Amino acid sequence: MRSVIITGGAGFIGSHVVRLFVNKYPDYNIINLDKLTYAGNLDNLRDIEGKPNYKFVKMDICDFEGVLALMKAEKVDGIIHLAAESHVDRSIKDPFTFAQTNVMGTLSLLQAAKTYWESLPEGFDGKRFYHISTDEVYGALEMTNPEGIEPPFTTKASSGSHHLAYGSKFFTEDLKYQPHSPYSASKASSDHFVRAFHDTYGMPTIVTNCSNNYGPYQFPEKLIPLFINNIRHRKPLPVYGKGENVRDWLFVEDHARAIDLIFHKGTIAETYNIGGFNEWKNIDIIKVLINTVDRLLGRAQGEDMDLITYVTDRAGHDLRYAIDSTKLQRELGWEPSLQFEEGIERTVRWYLDHQAWVDNVTSGEYQKYYDSMYKNR
Ligand code: NAD
Ligand code: DAU
Q: Contact at 8 Å (CB) between 216 and 347?
């Protein structure tokens, strides 16, 4: 029996983690703690909301007293912390919210867990505070091979037709942090607090840093769901800069599987990078999306290529992310389960089949935000 709080469980990655844990561990008590910001949506979890081992609590991670009382009431022995403000463009417009949630919220959660666990006779024994972070804390890698080279490793994710690395350097766990955006600066700061709580108080913490996720239930402000929806409705596709920036893409369920494995088998105080050696230039992904949407909607191949619209670059836009996940693969035996081509096909189909979900989350406040973003470009 374990009692586990998953923060941010109503968001994109969090909902996949909650679903996996609720279905896989019927004897666990799974508590989804989420403030339900614009990015949180309980529709993401309709299929499991009636399960006896699942509970939703609407709460802000910054609410120290509320979180502490919840931990005591539920006898919580594990925390998987995903709640965050997660969109880089929003952090450029409104850095304060990112510092508040990502830094102060994480600190408040750490302090609540420490206070509760230290009050128990067994202290930190058998407890675990697992913090989910991002590869963006490492900054940006150089693109030394713009035409692409053979990557040092092939995983299922990268084993499709496109199989390239755009430089010989990768993000490894020992790299120094060099965040550039307010988002990544706030995540870097939260990572430091988590490690400080281990080093200072002996808290049983783990940190993981993952690359870009894609898949169902991602809020359509992020590249892949936004562009699928725009292609469907034949709206312009705002490509930042020249579209040459490189991201390393992982199917969200593979990230959730890694989180499960690391929560149960990872070593306390360690950091693990999570990624599938699956680098893509934005413009190449965008072409795959156009071809896939056009094919699935029965349109002529490439018919919608003229939707590509180059716009002003994102301020401080990181050029290349590429994760080296060999530590996780070697020590815990994790690897991605899905080839990128299969993952993208599943993802595009999901968004096309769930237009009501997309319309629901993109109405109202989001539409105002998106329109104002556009006006500034
Ligand atoms: P998301 O924006 O889709 O979801 C965030 C969730 O956190 C939402 O449900 C929101 O309501 C909740 N939340 C926000 N502020 C809160 C607060 N103060 N109190 C309680 N709940 C709050 O984010 P995501 O893309 O699922 O990312 C989840 C985590 O994974 C984040 O920590 C992010 O930094 C990290 N991450 C994301 C990616 C990615 O590609 N999306 C990659 C690596 C790491
Ligand atoms: O690397 C992990 C990170 O990946 C996570 O920590 C973040 O939470 C997550 O949002 C994501 O950050 P990115 O900034 O890489 O994701 P985004 O989908 O916003 O953008 C992907 C790339 O596409 C990036 O180079 C910017 C570009 N882009 C994005 C949007 C929304 C465009 O060209 N046009 C767009 O409209």
A: yes
